[in-house]
Amino acid sequence: MKYRSWLVFVLIIVIALSACGGNSSSSSTPASSSSTGVSLDFWYALSGDSGNALETLVKRFNASQMGITVVATYQGSYADAMAKIDAAIAGNSYPDVAQLGAAPLLGNSKVVLPITSFTQADSSFHLDQILPAFLNYNTAGGTLWSMPFNNSLPVLYYNKDLFKSAGLDPEAPPQNLDELLADAQKMTLDPGNTGTPSQWGLNFRDDDQWYLSTLFLENGAQVVNADESQVLYNSSEAVAMLQLWGDWVNKYKVMPINQHSEAQSDFLAGKLGMYFGSSAMVTSLKSSAPFDLGVAMFPAIGSVRKAPVGGGSLVIFKNKDARIVQATWEFVKYMVSRDSQIYLATQTGYIPVYKEALSWPEIKALIAADPSRKAAIEELDSAVAIPEFSALGDSDAALRQAIQQVELNASTPQKALDDAVKSVDQSIQRYK
Predict the structure, then answer these.
(1) Which residues contact 422 (CB under 8 A, 6 or more apart)?
(2) How far is CA 30 from the centre of its chain?
(3) Rounded to an integer, what distance in angstroms lies between the CA atom of residue 353 and that of residue 326?
(4) In this structure, are residues 289 and 369 in contact, taking their beta carbons and an 8 Å threshold?
(5) What is the pLDDT of residues 309-355, one digit of tens each?
(6) CB distance 44 to 75 below 8 Å
(7) pTM for the complete prediction?
(8) Which residues share a beta bridge with 277?
(9) Fold for domain 2-152+310-384?
């Protein structure tokens, strides 16, 4: 029963992460044994441009090797891939390595190896060069279970054309919440006074709990306590942020009620001035937007800017064959190497995970050639991790429900968050 409970909360989490990839799929044949070398079975959950970039890295790794061949197989969205991993674990037929969302929570499955078991024995890999936020994002129960790979941060996308039409400087996006509201008010248009604007000032993507949590953290609230036994977001600091969120909808009327699933289509249709989403979306938005796309860092609260990490990771599965385990580590090292991280950042909206990335010549050149990449990469200095606690999936769902209740005026922010805390704390107890 404990194993099945673990699966339930992991699947809830990865459903929220699944939109980080594209919609097209790729596939290849399953791995087979080799008499002259090692063949690794690699499952992944990226598609579209991101999937193409990952496949290129796999091909480059294979070309660099004499005795290791990686066979990559697309397994669908994060949620699909995790469901297949569960079935594979149950059938004792899991892959050698996988790229997944919520990967560190697989530590409870007893079939994955801690990343530190490799880094402590390999002096060629320097774990301390990776930003702590990305390591924390891959840690559960105090153990680093997965390796950072394709990671993203929340950013603000905006329509520069609509900024100009509203008399705003398209090169001066809002830097704090006061500026965000002021700009949203100028871009919310209801010429017929119908009560339903033809153009809205701002909206959030449907993984709205991520952005509300960002506001919590920036305002000094916490998501969970130190021993991960209770969530803490019914504090006055958290309530103030949900109150502001509700005010954007019901008081200032710059955001539509409960329309986060339509936010991206509204934005691309020119009906929305500012749109909060993942940095991973930048390439797809640039290719789809019929207007001049701007990208800015998530607005700060005062001088505080915090950007919680999202995205996927690499996990290594146990194997009795030491050659396969070592070969898998060599592959993981390659995928998270400086050159691979530069390539992934260049081809997608994912960001490099290293402390020194901002000073790399290749990253400086990328920003110079494509200014839309600057915001997410500069946000690295503000990156933080929301702990991967047992009921994180339930917590995300509860926060989404709290947002909906407040937007619909069906609850006060305090009661909505009190209800969320009560529900999630009960889930934490169930998962113990």
Answers:
(1) none
(2) 28
(3) 23
(4) no
(5) 999 999 999 999 999 999 999 999 999 999 999 999 999 999 999 99
(6) yes
(7) 0.91
(8) 155
(9) D-Maltodextrin-Binding Protein; domain 2 (3.40.190)
Q: Which of 139, 127, 148, 151 is nearest to 308 (CA)?
A: 151
Q: How many angstroms separate the CA atoms of 85 and 10, rounded?
A: 11
Structure confidence by residue, pLDDT tens digits, 256-284: 999 999 999 999 999 999 999 999 999 99
Give the chain's count of helices (H) and strands (E): 17, 13
The structure tokens listed for 356 are 């020194």
What is the rounded average pLDDT of the residues 152-175? 98
C-alpha distances (whole Å) from 316 to each of 34, 88, 103, 213, 340 are 20, 14, 10, 30, 18
Amino acid making up residue 388: E
Say how far apart CA 5 and CA 238 lie, in whole Å.
Answer: 29
Residue 263 CB burial class (10 angstroms; 0-12, 13-18, ≥19): buried
Residues 6+ apart with CB under 8 A from 232: 221, 222, 223, 224, 225, 238, 421
Higher pLDDT, 35 or 389: 389
Residue range 154-308+390-431, CATH number: 3.40.190.10
Average pLDDT in the 201-220 region? 97
Q: CATH 3.40.190.10 occupies which residues in the chain?
A: 2-152+310-384, 154-308+390-431
Nearest to 160 by CA among 144, 183, 130: 183
